[in-house]
Amino acid sequence: xxxxxxxxxxxxxxxxxxxxxxxxxxxxxxxxxxxxxxxxxxxxxxxxxxxxxxxxxxxxxxxxxxxxxxxxxxxxxxxxxxxxxxxxxxxxxxxxxxxxxxxxxxxxxxxxxxxxxxxxxxxxxxxxxxxxxxxxxxxxxxxxxxxxxxxxxxxxxxxxxxxxxxxxxxxxxxxxxxxxxxxxxxxxxxxxxxxxxxxxxxxxxxxxxxxxxxxxxxxxxxxxxxx
Length: 227
Fold this sequence. Notes:
Blueprint lengths: L6 H34 L3 H32 L2 H6 L5 H33 L6 H25 L3 H13 L1 H10 L1 H7 L8 H26 L6
């Protein structure tokens, strides 16, 4: 396994992904900011509408980042051209991981920061900070799983199944969090409480995300060809 990296070419591939997708991702951010504006009204109807819209925007952004950076490239034969360049499977894997994390991570970070600002600066209960971070943690994990599957499996059907399936699990997660008193009760108060279940769930989400990305990089880096 050759660990020497072509860093200039990796950088160019990452910049290419960012420049191609920054405008659609900016539209996702604007939609997310509109949802945050509804949340900030701190009225029941606006809260539920804004929450639903924000989750839809996060899931759509996650699916868009994966499908455009890998699945569309495969359809348009862009991948064959890129692999004709002096780039190793490890170079391309790192470029795709970094590019995917950039195109997904920037809107994700903006909306995460915006959510925390809205919660802490409006009449919404501050306890929602923990609850919202657990939702964002799930979106991050779902994205990492979808990205790993897209890099491993060429079937478009299986990739769509992985993206939709992993993101739809946010609904059972919300129901589960609502049934855990140590999480649901503080979420309605002004206290930010990091209970043991909340810390455990968020830690599991972050560890699984890192393990998924690490395994994907190791698995593709040892292959003679990307596919």
